[in-house]
Amino acid sequence: MLVKAKHFLFNNNQLRGNIPPTLGLVQTLVTVRLDWNSLSGPVPPNLNNLTSVKELYLSNNELTGPLPDFTGMNSLTYMVLSNNKLNGTLDIGNSYSNNLTVDLQNNSISDFTQKASYNMVLKLVGNPICQGNGATERYCTIQKSNPSYITPTNSCTAVVCRSDRILSPNCKCAYPYTGTLHFFSFSFSNLENSSYFRTLAESLMSAFQSNQLLVDSVSLSDPTVDVYSYLQFRLQIFPSALDHFNRTGISTVGFLLTNSFPIPNYGSYSFKEESYCCFAGAKKPSNTGINVGAVVGSFVLVLFILGAGFYAFHQKREAKRAVQQSNPFANWDRDESSGGVPQLKGARWFSFEELRKCTNNFAEVNVVGSGGYGKVYRGTIASDQLVAIKRARQGSLPDALQFKTEIELLSRIHHKNVVSLVGFCYEQGEQMLVYEYIPNGTLKDALSGKSGFQLNWMRRLRIALDSAKGLAYMHELANPPIIHRDIKSTNILLDDCLNAKVADFGLSKLMEDTSKNYVSTQVKGTMGYMDPEYYTTQQLSEKSDVYSFGIVLLELVTARAPIERGKYIVVVVKNAIANLTDQYYIHDILDPTLGPSAKLGGLKKFVELAMRCVKDSSSERPTMGEVVREIENIMQLASSNKNFETEFTSSSYEGSSDGSKAFDYSGGL
């Protein structure tokens, strides 16, 4: 698997020693970055075997000896070996790319074979060859960047903006969302060619428009190449509706940029945003830049190819890991760093063989769900109990401490409206969680009709109350409190009587310091449900769950996805309320299967509660305990409505009901 790597990115890593010749054996490589280290010795001659490499960076090291033969590397577009001690004659052959840029500044190059015919970008400043005259002169002058470039405007000479606003390319005065784009793979070199920048701006706008984001235009300025040879731009994104973005607009645009949608011909990048000017309390979130998983994977590759000593160390570590997997808890240190042996309450350990048998060798016919973590299988354990087995796929396994923390957290949650953990498996390199089986699927499936039954108004209120009680228990009665962090309609499950249970705690966070009302953490969650204040400040609180729950409440009313045809459900409901013309409340956006809105007792109060939950400011949102009490009051109002229908109708789900009487949400079983 290692010999199929495409990107070898180890620039600025304080590496020492020689470049291993085995690097030339990885012929699938496209990008090699070893610049800004302390590597010494010659450049391995077999690097010319890397015929697929487009970008080779070896600059700012202590490399010596003659230049290697690059005549076989016909795919090269950018070769940077500047600031070394290389000598000899440069010969790049006659089959080089039409876009090839060669940077050999500050070496000891004495001659260049193609100096009379080479018409691409070549930088030889600081080499002995530049002391002569003639054909080399054009290669021996310092080339300037284009810091003065800015996206042109469309004849806006008559438009004058206030000092605190900026003129957009489309002649609108607005407050743009601003940041810096850093490209990690410099795939072109001529910064004076503005067509590159126009293409980039068009690609960005195309991405925003295809995702139906409220963006009017983008402006690029100050293209530069930093000390690591990374291309960077200043980016301004202008809103299309008002003169400023709201928190939701910032979070959706920022989410798209920080998740690196592909930009043709520009390679991978990161976006480092600046604090937005137009709402209080925004803090600049950190940008992790390079994916941690990619760095770890690349580090393993380096260990593999650097030599036998590293290989022996790696084998020893793998042997130790195998022992831990065969009996993980017995081998964990009982200190604070490891957390000691897991303290479980009511959950049991399953062997891999038990779970393999009860799922018929993890047969596809038993798959009941899947996601980024892995697949979920239905199975029957020895006690004839149906269970759902969540099996982590290879590549998504959390470390031992993280897995231990998760099962400890799940094992101590005991509430009728929270899915129970039955047990877990941690052996043979597998991590599996075993839950009680919830037969009627997700709330999302029920609302979409996929489950085969309809939910009438009273049943939807009951589902809202059940899931609110589960969340309120986590926030107010669990010790320490737990923030779910990924509340959505696919994480609310319905049992055989359509009682709701909150599920999937993969992103949950403990509120271990209860003196604070938030936890500072990297932003995670699901687009459309994510609290914009959490996205902006990186401060997670129980009110972040409240916001997500408010989106679920709006789904219960409309049966619409949070983002549908590019329209955000919060905005849709706000507009429906603002444009109310008929006698019934938001009739036009109601789920048609609910019937006439006049028969839906408490509908107006329910929607008002949902809209309070999705307030931009967390301080204006209710707590989950308050949400529980309000839904109980709404259910009483609905049951007193003269048009009141029972919880189950012939068109909905035929099953038992536990009534609509209010009860304490502490979850006594």
TrEMBL record:
Mention any Pfam family matching this sequence: PK_Tyr_Ser-Thr
Q: Which residues form the signal peptide?
A: none
Where does the record place the Protein kinase domain?
362-635
Residues binding ATP, per UniProt = 390
This protein's major location comes to membrane
Keyword entries, A-Z: ATP-binding, Glycoprotein, Kinase, Leucine-rich repeat, Membrane, Nucleotide-binding, Receptor, Repeat, Serine/threonine-protein kinase, Signal, Transferase, Transmembrane, Transmembrane helix
Task: Look up and give the membrane topology term.
Answer: Single-pass type I membrane protein
Q: Which domain of life is it from?
A: Eukaryota
Q: Where is this chain's protein located in or outside the cell?
A: Membrane
What protein name is recorded for this chain? non-specific serine/threonine protein kinase
